[in-house]
Amino acid sequence: AVYRVAANGRHLLAQAPTGIGKTLGTLYPLLRAMPGQRIDKIGYMTCKGTGRITALEALHALREAAPTQALRVLTLVAKEQACEHPTKACHGDACPLANGFYDRLPAARAEAVQAGWLDAPAQRRIALKHDVCPYYLGQELLRWADVVVGDVHHAFDPYGQLYGLAQAQGWKLALLVDEAHNLIDRARDMYSASLSLARVRAAIADAPVSLRAPLRGLAKELATLGRAQADDYQPLATLPEVLGEALQRVNVALGEHVQGHPLEVGTMLEFYFECIGLQRLLDRLDTHSLCDLQRSSATRPLMDAPANLSLLDDGHEDDGSLDVLLSVRNIVPGHFLKERFAGLSSVTLFSATLGPPDYPRHLLGLP
């Protein structure tokens, strides 16, 4: 079935019991279909780390069985796990492994391609030998790998590197998704976001003077809406215009700040990513997601904010007693994932517990 799906450019949802060899049973026919169908790359995507271990064991066995036709296998590693200098910006003036990266990349890449087996330890060993960043070496090696093993977010997240590069390069990319029943909840998380008043307060306390005015404006609108709503929980059919405009002003100001301070890392950069992610989901808000506002008592009063950080212009001093959480909660990830499935050569999703086939098919947006 996997071979026929790959040969015809279709998608497959398959349920099979645990322990019968689904990993090798899906990898082998897809590899057989690869040359005839001119598939550029195979992605073995997992929802858990144990699935990646099983996939690598199966691929290692296949490489050992055909040493003259050894596959180039790459494990995609999260930046947080691969970064050697997490407190430094990814910039030549800040990180020693970024300085001169492209000068040293060709030698590192040549050794990696020759090695062929590129799990996380091998990438780190080769990268540090040539004084380049292990994470960005792995990203560069995407172009040279036959099979890529990694977490599902590399293929289905809005910023997934594997899918994004495949689209940019025009690759025919075929995916295998292990433990696919977990993809529904994982995808919901990928297309959900939230921002709390407490988080904005913390950003105000850390922000430079040039960012405080738009941040105060956002905090004011969140606090005003929280106080005005009748119940602690309030679903929103649309985002109030004043709150949307306040969020846009914050994103513009933060974007200009990040561009002007490329070496800066830390809380403001993280807060910018949170705000821009929320903005992008709000721009696509529809029946597939729920927008809501939750009011609660703050877990910790605002004690250490800089002077003159009143959040409200109407004379109410913000004592940190109120917290408000603005959320976009995705319910049907298929609205976003169907775009991914349309851009892939074939996808086989398999698990031991998929349940009624119409349920995951509808929620995942399978054609």
Q: Give the N-terminus to C-terminus distance in angstroms.
A: 17 Å
Contiguous helical run count: 16
In the CATH hierarchy, the third-tier topology of the largest domain is known as: Rossmann fold
CATH class group of the largest domain: Alpha Beta
What is the overall pLDDT average?
Answer: 91
Q: Report on the biggest sheet.
A: 7 strands, parallel
Identify the CATH architecture of the largest domain.
Answer: 3-Layer(aba) Sandwich
**Count of DSSP strands:** 11
Structural domain tally: 2
* Multimeric state: single chain
Strand order of the largest sheet: 1-11-6-2-5-3-4
Shape: globular
Q: How would you characterize the overall build of this protein?
A:
This protein has 367 residues and is α/β, with parallel strands linked by helices. It has 2 domains: 2-76 and 142-190 and 333-364, Rossmann fold, CATH 3.40.50; 193-330, Orthogonal Bundle (Fumarase C, Chain B, domain 1), CATH 1.10.275. The chain contains 16 helices and 11 strands. The protein has helices spanning 2-8, 22-36, 49-65, 79-82, 101-115, 120-129, 134-141, 153-156, 161-169, 183-190, 197-206, 209-228, 241-260, 267-283, 334-342, 358-364; strands at residues 11-15, 41-46, 73-75, 117-118, 147-151, 173-177, 193-196, 233-236, 289-297, 322-330, 346-351. The strands form 2 sheets. Strands 1-11-6-2-5-3-4 form a 7-stranded parallel beta sheet, with helices on both faces. The protein is globular, with a radius of gyration of 24 Å. The model is unreliable at 301-317 (pLDDT under 50).
